[in-house]
Amino acid sequence: MFNLRNEIKNTYGGLPMSIWILAITQLINRAGAMVVFFLAIYLKKGLGYDFTQVGWAMAIYGTGSITGIKTGGYFTDKVGYRPVMVFSLLVGAVCFVAVSFITEFYLLLPGLFLMAFTSEAYRPANMAAVSLYSNSSNYLKAITLNRLAINLGFSIGPALGGLLATLNYQYIFWADAASSLLAAGMAILFLKQRTKPDTANAEESSAPAISPYKDVWFMLFLPMVSLYSIAFLQLFTTMTIYYEEVQHLTKIQIGKLLALNGGIVAVFEMFLISKIGNRGKPMQFITWGGVLLILCYVSLYFAQGYAWMVLITILASLSEMLAMPFMNTFMNDRSSEKNKGQYSSLYIIAWSLAHIITPLLASFIAVNAGYPALWTTMLVLSMGSLLVCRIIHANTTTA
């Protein structure tokens, strides 16, 4: 008989307190990450910049983000995740406050670069910490809990940011600074630097610390991640325009569709991972995630109406729950204790590039060739990702 209490205990149990501290720190940090959602609006309406200036500013912010991720990964392997996390959060808080007072365009550009650089260096350090505090038997649950914290944080952040923006755009920067300081306090007080893996992790740490750039299958894995993520992210970015212009959905219906994805992932991902996590290889589950994403785009050729859009959102959510946690697992399995920061940073960059490419590519195709051409493009990307996934699986699976 189904026992909810036992299911919750089995799903969330077995994780060390340090993993929960990391998840709480991640939740606080991501809930405070409001600037990125409102930066373009702030630059346009708050500071009065034109579209060209806004574009340059956003590009500089993106460059700082990717540079910070790469640098954070490098120093995580050199000095450890804890110093990088604390530095990123503390200095990032200072940068948030400083940028909130800059109005001159050519001073703002380096300010945005430094703000993105310092705050984003946190991400590979956090991912490496999750790996080092867990072991081969509970890593998948640990990274899924971390993803849950991120999703919840990104649900809270935009809502709170919208409220603060109605009062004063500066408050968003200050709230980001406050959340960074709070997360830094959590890391300083409750996280100790871990330099030696436990017994369960000994086999993993004995792997040779080769450069990820020499890991052929990991380097092939990165474009697979980007291809998948471009196709996936399109369903939750420019897709909203399609909902309104073609499907004629109301703003309330569009909001429900976006909320449905977050709700499904938040409620069911941990339960799903606890049931299937040890029943196959990562690439097998990523394959199923890729197949579901392909079904989403095949459906869009003939799907009409709100009910169909709900079904497609459910399929996309299932795809996310199958693919993304196991992408993390594959990345972690390829790395060793001495190079987790570099592996993590490259993996995060693969996703970050998709965040930059997706809105540009999708909007260009939709405007110039129409939505059917957009579905075809995303279908091809999804199939390309699936093909690469099968190649990697065939060459990395041991008997």
Description:
- The chain has helices at 4-12, 17-31, 35-46, 51-79, 81-99, 105-120, 122-133, 139-167, 169-190, 202-205, 216-234, 239-245, 251-276, 282-299, 306-334, 340-369, 371-396.
- The chain is mostly helical.
- The chain folds into 2 domains: 17-193, MFS general substrate transporter like domains (Growth Hormone, Chain: A); 213-399, Growth Hormone, Chain: A.
- The longest helix has 30 residues, at 340-369.
List the helices and strands and how they pair.
Blueprint lengths: L3 H9 L4 H15 L3 H12 L4 H29 L1 H19 L5 H16 L1 H12 L5 H29 L1 H22 L11 H4 L10 H19 L4 H7 L5 H26 L5 H18 L6 H29 L5 H30 L1 H26 L3
- Tell me the quaternary state: single chain
CATH-assigned fold name of the largest domain: Growth Hormone, Chain: A
Q: Spans of 5+ residues with little confidence (pLDDT < 50)?
A: 196-207
* CATH homology superfamily name of the largest domain: MFS general substrate transporter like domains
